[in-house]
Amino acid sequence: MSTATRRWLTSAATRTVLWLVIAFILVPLVWMVSTSLKPAGYAQTIPPTWIFKPTFEHYVGVFKGEAATPFGPLLLHSAIVAISATAIAVALGLLAAYALARIPFRGKKFLAMWILSTIMFPPVVAVIPVFILAGRWGLMDTYPALIIPYVAFNLPIIIWTLRSSIRQIPEEIEEAALMDGLSRMGIIVRMVVPLAAPGIATAAILSMLLCWNEFLFAVSLTRSQVKTAPVGINEFTGMFGTQWGAMTAAATVIVAPVLLMALMLRRHLIEGLTLGAVK
Amino acid sequence: MARLSPAGTTAGGVGTVRGSRGAVPVGRAAIGPAGGADAQARAANRTAWLLVAPAVAVLLAMTIFPAGYLLYASFRSFNLMNPDAGRFVGLQNYQNIASNADIRQSLLITLLFVVLAVGIEVVLGLGLAVILAKQSRENSIAATILILPMAVTPVVSALVWRELFNPNYGWVDYYLQKFGLIDVPIDWLGSSTTAWITLISLDVWQWTPFVALILMAGIQGVPREPKEAAAVDGAEGWRLFWDIVLPLLRPFLAIAVLLRVLEAFKTFGTIKVLTGGGPGISTEIVNLTIYRTALQDFSVGAAAALGISFLVFLSIAVPQLLKVLARNTDLVEG
Q: Which of A187, A188, A191, B265 is 20–30 Å from B130 (CA)?
């Protein structure tokens, strides 16, 4: 076999493997979306129906809520929690990240390590006290009970992402501004925010994605007033038994925004999830 | 960190001084006009701590405070239905969990889950990364698709898995039968071995791309020179990869393994929804055990003792992992 033939064979083999892997990755998503579009009666057939006339009846059912709780409010709750928690976490994280990136201070190294180490803290350990105290303070099934833990769990990622974006801003500009008498707060608001905007956007999108997907705190701390979409869909299927059409329609609605966010982030998703260690 | 001052040693934590080195700058300060620098350092300190304070407060409230609360609860007989009636019971909760075979099993199951899932993800991820590292249009499309599983809401992926592996209507059993790989449908969640296969396959689906994309970035960053030099010496294929690429990939492997291990130890939603810990308790990792004990059986004391034990285990194991990481990357520098 000539070198050229062998090279061609290797390349053909690796490409086949690659596309098999991609197919494996897409199967669950294809199942979800295609099932959600199948007319009632075709969703759950053996052998699976591949040729069908797409319908949005399941989506209508999910939102109109003919049989179960309508899904619209759950999505709204999820959005309110994700957006509020992200806004607070980015604001607090930006201040902390600036101090860690720019100001030499006592205990900085220890503090940075401690913030980083909180990513190992198992949420299930935090949820028990939060559950008990939320009950005692009348915060059960309210937004703050969910938003405060989400802020905490996203802070390390946000601080780390923003710290590395702030470090990429040339320090000289800030020094000049300090000389001119601008306060640190003034510098953060007027210079760091615009210059670190891409980093802030990355951190914010990532944080929203993680809040949107969270389940443990949501299932423990919400009942009906602020119940989020992942909690809802889990109960939803129980009620429907194995009603695939409704379940997959709801699943597609939940997953669509996060998939969109992931595609917006692209490689920054990895950068964020590795706390900036992998660019 | 050499901004030292005479006042720093006495300022009770406000200055930037590390006590033992205070003696040196005393003399220097007496010579130079260090008074201004000292005031500046103190101001910087105050500003910095004011800036980090809100974030630190929230983090404390969700880590140290719950840990303290659980430590307190772990020494008491503490029932969720009647939280104020708890009395001090010493180490009884700890003795109970130590002598409970189910809990010992749940700890083993947790370790098994983490090792199996992360192990498979690293092996597959490495293979995928090697294929993806060559830059081409095709690979860039593949890399984009690879991002998707990571973003899928874990509850949703678990629900999808449950139906894909459904013995009556699921695609998995149907197509396995159709291609003659099995004769009768398998009730995947009905026995512990097949439930484990289902569970691990879900985690592998969702998180192998994470490992693959990290390692892909690593391989793409390997400089050409050592590869070319080795190629000149006759190294090719596997040898080239094993001797040249893999050592340079170590920091990336370290990051990927560390972060996957940390996240795997936090797994909750997927297992809760997919198997609920079953059949029996054969897939009940410790997170589910803690949750069930506290919020479904209402025995907060026992759950607290288990939670504290888990926390102690993690705080011994994770710094070891972080040390490996610090040796390999610059993630952990001041």
A: B265
Q: How many CB pairs under 8 A join A and B?
A: 281
In contact, A62 and A249? CB cutoff 8 Å: yes
Q: How many helices (H) and strands (E) does chain A have?
A: 14, 0
State which H helix or E strand residue B148 sits in: helix B137-151
Q: Are residues A85 and A21 in the same domain?
A: no
CA distance B120 to B101: 28
The answer to whether B237 contacts chain A (CB < 8 Å) is: no
Instruction: Give the max Cα distance, chain B.
Output: 90
State the DSSP string of A38-90.
Answer: SPTTTTT-SSPP-S-----HHHHHHHHTSSS--SHHHHHHHHHHHHHHHHHHH
Read off the pTM. Answer: 0.87
Judgement on whether residues A140 and A7 belong to the same structural domain of the protein: no
Residue ranges and CATH numbers for the domains of chain B are: 7-62 (no CATH), 102-298 (1.10.3720.10)
As given in the structure block, the two tokens for residue B257 are 């393994």
d(CA B287, CA B265): 8
CA distance B159 to chain A (A): 8
Q: Is residue A256 assigned to a domain?
A: yes
Give residue A179's domain range.
72-273
Q: Both A124 and A213 in a single domain?
A: yes
Residue range B191-248, pLDDT digits in tens: 999 999 999 999 999 999 999 999 999 998 888 777 777 777 766 677 777 877 888 8
Q: Which structure tokens are listed for A241? A: 């038994």
Nearest to B48 among A28, A99, A132 (CB): A99
Could you read off the pLDDT of A23-80 as tens digits, one per residue? Answer: 999 999 999 999 999 988 888 888 888 888 888 888 988 888 655 568 889 999 999 9
Structural domain includes residue A213: yes
Separation between Cα atoms, residue B295 and residue B231, nearest integer Å: 60
